[in-house]
Amino acid sequence: MMCGKSSYGRALAELLGREFIDLDFEIEKGVAPGDIIRAKGEAAFREEETAALRRVLSRTQDCILALGGGTPLREENRDLLKAAGCRVIWLKASLEDSVFNPEWSTLTATRPLLDGGDRERIVQLWESRIPVYQAVADCTVVTDGKTAGQILSELESLARQSNIQGSAPVL
User: Fold this and answer.
1) CATH number, position 157
2) pTM of this prediction?
3) Cα–Cα nearest to 65, from 52, 74, 46
4) With pLDDT > 70 as the criterion, what percentage of the chain qualifies?
């Protein structure tokens, strides 16, 4: 969450001349994920997220796809990514460089899963996701201490060296 998947995914897609898809905005066109979660609850959001992932993977695999931070938590979603031959890249950012970064405090406040900013609860959420991310990731790009240019260069190198034409790199 808040590691730059959308920003880096968009930039990577431009560099590679591929379509960029942000799964969060494929769930309900024009509706922010936080608004869906607040209106329908997280469980309903996760169901819609899986349906959106299925739709996206059925129509194209020649894209750069940014997942939501919770997407890989569902086994069904992991199975869909694997069946589609997606290469999953984990953008690994520390909480200090992402959620707790003072520059992002306004954005953090809009995220329902971070509502209230309870540091202990956020750390628990983050730590609970690490084993899933480790298991699903084909490769990891650690973002801490790197410039945006360095991160993008690393992502481009990973995408190009794998010759992934026809398979979606997923961030």
Assistant:
1) 3.40.50.300
2) 0.83
3) 52
4) 80
